[in-house]
Structures are given as C-alpha cells and as structure tokens.
Write a structure and sequence with these properties.
single chain, alpha/beta, Rossmann fold, globular, seven-stranded mixed β-sheet
Length: 299
C-alpha cells in the first residue's frame, strides 16, 4: 500500500471515499473532493496506484493499492482503519460489499448502499459525483464554487520543463490519439489522426500517451515525438501546449482538469455526460466524428 500521508492520519479519519476505477472518472470527482475537503476535517481517498500522481500537487489524503479490486483486501482495509462512513463512486456490487461488511454507513449509487442516490443520465458525470457530496453533507452546495484546476507538484513541473526545453523546444500542440474500451460497440477514437498529422502545419505535433501505448504510438506516428511519463508530467506538457486534441478518454479529462486548452473530439459517446468540464469539443454531422477539413477550419 502506498500513501501520500502517514498511516496515523488514516487512523484519525472516519470517512473514506472509494475513488472510481478509471482515470477520467477519478478526475471528474475533483469538485466533490474539494467540497468534502472544505466541510470535513479529515478523510481518506482510496484509489488505484495512478491516483497518487493525479493528485500529487494537492493536500488530499490519497491512499493507493494495486489490490483495490480485491474485495477481501478492501474489507480488511476498511475494518482495520476503523472507518465509520464511506462514499462510493463506483456503482458496482464488488465495491459496496466490502464497506457494508466492515460496518460502514455508505452513500452511493448501488441499491445496497445505506443511502442510495439516483444517477441522473441527463447530468454531466462531474455533477453526478458532486451529488454524492451533497447527499453526504446534507447541503445544497453550488458546484461552481468548487470549479478549480488541479495543481501540479513542483517535481513534475521541473521534469515537464526539461522535456519542453530538451526535446520539444518549439511551439507545439498535443494529440492523444487513443481511447480504451468501446462505447456501445463503437470505437471512441477519432479515425482521422494520420490525415490530421499530415495536413496540420501551424505548430509541432507531440503525442502524449500512456506507457502501455508508447510503442504502438511510435509505430503509428513515426514522424512525431511521442511523450510518455507520469500523469502529472503529462498534464504539464498538455497545459503548456497551444492546444490539445483528444478523444473522449482519460487523456481528455487529464488535459481539462489541469488547465490545458483542450478540444475533445466526439462522435461515439454521450457529450452531455463526458464532455470536457473545462475546455471545448467538436463533433461532426449527425453527432458523428468531425472531418479533418472541418477541424482545421475551426483551429
């Protein structure tokens, strides 16, 4: 188990927040976490190992483990640290059961939660997560009061500046050409990335991808620089770009919540639920993918 904070700070906490299982969704909890931080004296966020990098510039108490999907491990974690209350961001049975077995009073979307709230498909995902804080705090909070970018820690800023100075050097844009999973059987990846890279001439193009996509990206785009680093460093590289183009993906939300000039490219997913919380998006005719020509005209 890894933690930004010493274990004794966990012992003082009565509330634990189970963060989502996806990077994009975890980023979209940030207004909720800010509201809890303002109203609750101390709480713990339990997440996947990459959550530490996402929130490394904050003073949130982030605890991470590769065992987070292991129900027995989660049950022991909740029990051994004597939490009284829990907020469940995932909707799954496997996340609610360990908390309930450990005796926690829970707020979540699953019907087994102590206090179940409805997930509103007409709202943005950020707003749905924020409703968890409203229910827990019993306050009708204004989400706009917690509209802030996530700060980047100084170490990541230093590494990011070195990448800009030593590798990129010129004005640049960022592309994030990959997206995991399908949406209702359809790929979320804009199908025209290669054509765009051939036709766009206004600035240097940099690809920012995950470690698992690095080799694939080098093969797919041999003519451009590919950057793969921690999430916080990647966010810095995005933030300093002229703009970032990304599919509806974790990379899009990373750029959005860290203050980059993000343009999301939609054509398969539900814009009202997952558009960039900060930034803009483009979509083509009949809610399909925008063409290269039309995108170049709006850039």
């Amino acid at each position: 188990m890894n933690s930004k904070s010493p274990s004794k700070s966990i012992q003082k906490s009565s509330l634990v927040v189970r963060l989502p299982n996806w990077i994009g969704d975890t980023l979209m909890t940030y207004p909720m976490l800010l509201a809890l931080q303002e109203k609750v004296s101390d709480f713990v966020c339990l997440g996947h190992p990459w959550a530490s990098s996402l929130f490394s510039g904050t003073n949130l108490n982030i605890v991470t483990s590769a065992e987070i999907k292991n129900t027995k491990w989660c049950y022991r974690f909740y029990r051994d640290h004597h939490f009284d209350e829990g907020i469940l961001c995932p909707k799954t049975l496997s996340t609610v059961v360990p908390m309930r077995l450990a005796g926690l009073q829970t707020v979540g979307y699953h019907f087994l939660s102590s206090k179940r709230i409805d997930y509103n498909n007409r709202l943005h995902t950020v707003e749905n997560y924020f409703d968890l804080a409203r229910e827990f705090l019993k306050e009708d909070l204004d989400i706009m009061a917690f509209d802030r970018f996530i700060p980047i820690d100084q170490k990541s800023v230093t590494v990011g500046k070195a990448i800009l100075d030593e590798k990129i050097k010129d004005d640049y844009i960022v592309i994030c050409p990959y997206a995991t999973n399908l949406h209702k059987g359809r790929s979320k990846e804009w199908p025209f990335w290669r054509d765009f890279c051939t036709q766009y001439k206004e600035a240097k193009i940099i690809a920012v991808v995950s470690e698992s996509d690095y080799i694939r990206c080098c093969n797919d785009f041999p003519e451009i620089l590919v950057v793969s680093n921690t999430l916080a460093v990647s966010a810095y590289v995005m933030r300093e770009a002229k703009f970032v183009l990304a599919n509806d993906s974790g990379a899009m939300h990373l750029a959005s919540f860290f203050g980059a000039n993000i343009i999301g490219l939609f054509g398969a997913t539900e814009i009202n639920k997952t558009r960039p919380w900060f930034g803009s998006f483009q979509v083509g005719a009949d809610n399909g993918f925008i063409s290269v020509q039309n995108l170049l005209e709006v850039l």
